[in-house]
Amino acid sequence: MSQRRDFFRAAGALALGATAVSRVGAASLPEAVVQTSPTTQPPPAPPNGRPFNPVVTLNGWSLPWRMKDGVKEFHLVAEPVVRELAPGMTARLWGYNGSSPGPTIEVVEGDRVRIFVTNKLPEHTTAHWHGVQLPSGMDGVGGLTQPHIPPGKTFVYEFTLQRPGTHMYHPHADEMVQIAMGMMGLLIVHPKDPRQHRVDRDFAFLLGAYDIEPGSATPRVSEMTNFNLWTWNSRVFPGIDPLVARTGDRVRIRVGNLTMTNHPIHMHGPSFEVTGTDGGWVPKAARWPEVTTDIAVGQMRAIEFDAIAGDWSIHCHKSHHTMNAMGHQVPNLIGTDMRGLGQRIGRLIPGYMVMGDTGMAGMSEMDMELPENTLPMMMGQGPFGPLEMGGMFSVVKVRDGIKPGDYRDPGWYRHPEGTVAHEYTGEQPTVNRAAPTSSPSEATMSVRKPGGHHHEH
User: Fold this and answer.
1) Tell me, which fold does domain 2-314 have in CATH?
2) What is the model's pLDDT at position 15?
3) pLDDT value, residue 432
């Protein structure tokens, strides 16, 4: 315990502090790299510093750094951004360096980092390094551990990374607005020994939720429960890229949750092990097998599996979270004969469609007119027809011939002959339905009203 106290005392003495940068200091800031592409950017190998095996940020990218006097320097710019959620819809969000989430910061256990944060938002902000051990004055809680970063100002954070793990960064300033507008990013601390926890493919993304009314582009930040767009790295299916691997690869997927609810992330095909949490890596003897892991608000999880050839769905198992532009006031019309009513309404409202009387599957095939900048609830085509998915859904695509470092979409899986479910056209079995043992009677269907109210009989 005393060693830990000594670390924080020494780190605090050495740190610049989360303070404003002077004009002289601003002239020597590292370049603020900007990325606006919504597609996955394969990470480059580290150009200097300690070696590490970089992560692949799903539909995102990793922030370059500058090495200065043995310190890794990064530059984050908090600013309004335009993010394509999927082809056909963009959102006006807040993020960092042109994207939401912001770029992934990758460092190594033992690295000393200096992170400049420039505020180009219309209000003050801070940067909190979620789950990282650091001096209290670097923790990024506005008003408690530091002054807020005013618009137009740059603050600097400096600390040493003490342990490897999967972390996040986000504001602790007007966070109801700023996190709801998309201000978040990943902070990955790699182990000092690159052979430790090594995998062949290492993917990472953050869960986010938005309530964007049809025809609009800016989230309603006061919403607490009824979100209509559930995202991975501010993308919804079919805008979420596939997670590509080679048969036999050891694959890791790191997920962080900054929504307002938990998400049971389920993967088809191979079972996986939960190998990491917010607190760090789970010892091998304590890991547990799963096909679904529940990720609560503010939590991080890392899962690992051995890749098996095929196209394997990975998604949140809350069914409403795999839809886009989800309406919450839609009545259930299953079993209702709407044909006559639909014809009458059609005379008053040209183009009116009856839907929902046999379920909602047909919506993926309907060519409905929607407000501008609005996605249909279910979209995306697979090799066998509509996928009827949106939101938090993607595909782990595993192939034999994928080369190391290749993350391009290999297309749909070619199933070996005889391995696809198909229609049965043989003789149908006779169905014998058992007769009911008794019929409903007046006695079984009567309702007894509460006593003491004889005047209501």
Assistant:
1) Immunoglobulin-like (2.60.40)
2) 38
3) 76
